[in-house]
Amino acid sequence: MKPNSSSWLSKPFLTSLLLGIGGFLYGYDSGIITPSLALKSFLTYFGNPDAPLRGAIVSVYQAGAWLGSASVGITSDRLGRRKAIAFGCVWGVVGGALMAGAAHVAMLIVGRLLVGFAVGTITGVAPVFGAEIAKA
């Protein structure tokens, strides 16, 4: 029995959906910190960081994304596209765990740097992988 390729659960649809998560993560992770920094409980928990430290918390994500996107060519050439996406996902999980369990600002900053690196890697390689597997 041949699977129905026109189904919304077809392999191309699911693949493009999963590849699109990289773009979603970029927007979500870069935007979620702003409302968090407005919460009094968040600021109190992290010792009321001053403005430069809050700026570092926000901007280190973009620095990580830059590093991830700058290294994606080498990473995807050495590992292949699928493994490069998995490589980015691993760093995203590690960074997310650090942010979720952050006991102090340094853990939060390192977590955001790693998540930024992951998103830079994934958003750099996912479109290339999608183009490579697309039917001509």
TrEMBL record:
GO CC terms, sorted: membrane
Compartment annotation: Membrane
InterPro entries: MFS_dom, MFS_sugar_transport-like, MFS_Sugar_Transporters, MFS_trans_sf, Sugar/inositol_transpt, Sugar_transporter_CS
UniProt membrane topology term: Multi-pass membrane protein
Keyword field: Membrane, Transmembrane, Transmembrane helix, Transport
Family: Belongs to the major facilitator superfamily. Sugar transporter (TC 2.A.1.1) family.
Annotated protein name in UniProt: Major facilitator superfamily (MFS) profile domain-containing protein
